[in-house]
Specification:
Strand content of chain A: 15-25%
Shape of chain A: globular
Order of helices and strands of chain A: HEEHEHHEHHHEHHEEHEHEHH
Largest sheet of chain A: 9 strands, mixed
Structural class of chain A: alpha/beta
Oligomer: homotetramer
Amino acid sequence: MLKRRTDLAAEAAQLWQEEAGTTTRLEGVRARDSAREGFRVTTVQILNEEGARALGKPEGTYVTLELDGLLRREEGAFPRAARALATELSGLLELPDGALVLVVGLGNRAITPDRVGPRTAEHIIVTRHLVERSPEHFGSFRPVSALAAGVLGTTGMESGELIAAVVERLRPACVVAVDALASRSVKRVGRTIQLSDTGIVPGSGVGNARKALNRGTLGIPVIAVGVPTVVDAATLACDLLAEAGKGDFEPEALGGAQGLIVTPRDVDAQVEDLAKVIGYGIDLALQPGLTVEDIDLLVS
Amino acid sequence: MLKRRTDLAAEAAQLWQEEAGTTTRLEGVRARDSAREGFRVTTVQILNEEGARALGKPEGTYVTLELDGLLRREEGAFPRAARALATELSGLLELPDGALVLVVGLGNRAITPDRVGPRTAEHIIVTRHLVERSPEHFGSFRPVSALAAGVLGTTGMESGELIAAVVERLRPACVVAVDALASRSVKRVGRTIQLSDTGIVPGSGVGNARKALNRGTLGIPVIAVGVPTVVDAATLACDLLAEAGKGDFEPEALGGAQGLIVTPRDVDAQVEDLAKVIGYGIDLALQPGLTVEDIDLLVS
Amino acid sequence: MLKRRTDLAAEAAQLWQEEAGTTTRLEGVRARDSAREGFRVTTVQILNEEGARALGKPEGTYVTLELDGLLRREEGAFPRAARALATELSGLLELPDGALVLVVGLGNRAITPDRVGPRTAEHIIVTRHLVERSPEHFGSFRPVSALAAGVLGTTGMESGELIAAVVERLRPACVVAVDALASRSVKRVGRTIQLSDTGIVPGSGVGNARKALNRGTLGIPVIAVGVPTVVDAATLACDLLAEAGKGDFEPEALGGAQGLIVTPRDVDAQVEDLAKVIGYGIDLALQPGLTVEDIDLLVS
Amino acid sequence: MLKRRTDLAAEAAQLWQEEAGTTTRLEGVRARDSAREGFRVTTVQILNEEGARALGKPEGTYVTLELDGLLRREEGAFPRAARALATELSGLLELPDGALVLVVGLGNRAITPDRVGPRTAEHIIVTRHLVERSPEHFGSFRPVSALAAGVLGTTGMESGELIAAVVERLRPACVVAVDALASRSVKRVGRTIQLSDTGIVPGSGVGNARKALNRGTLGIPVIAVGVPTVVDAATLACDLLAEAGKGDFEPEALGGAQGLIVTPRDVDAQVEDLAKVIGYGIDLALQPGLTVEDIDLLVS
């Protein structure tokens, strides 16, 4: 079992190897690197109980995209990132034609690094009502609904409760849930997106873990789209010291960082950029007939 | 039946009298004026089918507050207005002790005059989760949940569908629904609030009427809090001409105003002020133990 | 002299003709239509005192673009509109190479239809500090500064005072001033942009006219970029009645509309779209080496 | 000379003592604690060259308020904090009756912890134009102007350049400049306000130090109001380890934290609260005739 906590399976696998030593081999886990649209993609499959225990994550597939060019605002980086995300997401979705998908943005609008979920929902092309009302015009679109689930403190409901209520009513074939994550490494923040078919625990990013959203709790597949926007302050302290060769400490040993988060200075802008890329990526995956240019005209 | 449309029962009664002439008496409708905390209050009761047909509104009680001092930002106007709203609202609510109330903010965040509902939801003291989890501390509070229901174009769901789903799940004793209205008279805009026990049709304010929210559709009482933030442009044209003695025209005769709305120049600020007054008024009605100062500390 | 007021020279010329009758010819004014990037362009030149008196506008050149496709969100409409604006703007600018330009966004952030100026400033590629500090990298850029001038009520300064102070300090070769306008016709709102080399009177859009910004007051050329986002309510009333054949009334005769404005229902979104087009158009005019795609990467 | 950097004189004095050891006495610096409206106030006077060198700060008076109750949202904490700030600020201001004051909010609106300056400017009662235009009504008010100076990247001007240009034009008797600071200690963040009569270096909070604003650069007194909203990540790491007894490291030794900031999780809300307290405090100091309730009605 891992001593250190991370929301990213790719990080967990790496940490496990560090702790176990390179000679030991991690059973029940398969990891491979590839490239998509010029971005690095790491796919980690947790195949059985043993692998799940080792990495502290449920069995399933975890895909990590590293969107460095996006952060550097390289030309063409945005459409490439959206297409890469769409392709990897499509690989995790198993959807009958015309089946309804519910996209939920998790997190608290009032906390900048936690806003990525709700902001993503604003970039989703919502079609359920159009497909139902004028199939003659919109029959070629997949029906999609979107929801920013809010947070307990502002609704009095777990986002899981609200989503379960909506799922019961709309009966979608699948939920795509977007949320902020906490990263182990400052280098991941703002440039990594993790997709998985194992569902998600809302609020883990800013440290308010809630009931899980997954096939067990909702009765349908839940594809998670997680993006690290914060690093735990105590974790950061230990990493900085380790990097500087100042020794190896445990975050748990540092109590003084309660209620503090570490973010990039330009987290406000990064959250906007990431929400747009994720929103467009989901749109492209759910409406394969569309291009990035089409989406520019359909949402704003 | 009225020739001209208005969301305000007090206006409807007045228009009916104008059209019918002062000699005729409106059967099945009782109207009375009073004062609350220094503000004018008009209460219209529609008692039967005949009255409902005459005013084009369902049977029930409609209370109109005129908050002139608020708009002029008179000293003390805000707490007086919040208390007046709370008292009138309490008169319409029949709630067992400790029964859950769901407050819903209707309307589109992206359209300024339609934002009053969602912004109100942000001023609601949400307690359901606290009362459930630590009754020892919060047992004296009524459990309250709040929801900004969004709009069809951004969720793919009627707000009525979303609210019905949540009602089914949370089983509240009552829904309080806040929405923008269209006023017949420019003088009402930004300074009038209508309460009624008859429910509400979302979106009537900016002209996208949806399925009604009422006891018939939700199975529980729905108290509507409506606030005029817009005037229909064609209606305005006719009123201006009538006022100026330039004759009497029908709004329907003027086609050129599609998609236009008439608002006060400072509608952005008015919507913020109204949302705060309504939010505080609802808080005071639902949590009678609190004062305006308490709410200042609990919400922001 | 015109009986009716409009900020748009193209409208003024039209109104003059209506009032004078088709047989009379307007001396001292030359008007011509053309097309740019698929959009209709009307150029009105006021050549002398007589023309200025007739149209109630100073001598100079007024270019009106009609961006209908933009509003309908046609594919490619945005880059075409930005390029059309850039070309027409370049025709009015007479700038030595490397001369500093100051772009000012006029208007009140707190009033939606008045926000177009300040929002435009956020889309301007600001280069003055870069060109000064590392000419080796940015020598190919024109130095540009930008400023959202705020309004009297929030600064205690006329925007003209603030701009004059900055002009005195930075000594730019030219000011490009962006502001909201009032339109005579509801059809103009949100789809028309007027460029002129005669300067601008801040705040005319929402009815708080201030000291003029022009060569006389600032000592350098002032290119005005005006966009109608509101219609005066009384004006609207008269137009609606005229259209409906209900007779011809004077807006001045209608007193009841004080403090009211008429806007498109989606003015919030329209203001965002217009600010982006104008910002990109100015960027393209001032930095001819750049493309729309380049600007996407440089501003956000 | 101090090894460690802090913007707060009270922290600097404390650090100096730690480094020098309790036996040594710091010459040229006088520090005293007091209480104001129930909040702790520390006043540090740097009396000469020696003191300035020791603490790495210019000669002058530095007043630190610790607003703990505010953060805990205690009843009455807000008006008490505003009054405490007003009283301490008045002690630093030497203003002839009726002399104009310019309040400037420094910092970048697009970066949450840096937004405290611009947001404060929105709470300032601006009176210059009123006093000038209708002295008969507003003669009892001090003329005040306010300005959010923006940042180099969005204007192409140093905020110092813009402020100097405005000072040259308006000829105020004094500038009050509000900016975010970096704190040495996480405990200071969001609950401390430092006032000083020595001026300010814009942008030190988020690490983009600019030209100083002080009597030397502007020719008039500059009262600085600084509020720590961030902690340097490397500094935090060292502090956490020191607290945990893990040894003593230098922030400079930790390179890995570039571009990262540490903030409270609810920094968005804290910045809003602090901006309001500071704005109200400045209003009370500049308009002694007003109460907190008056300001509620005058600004929003």
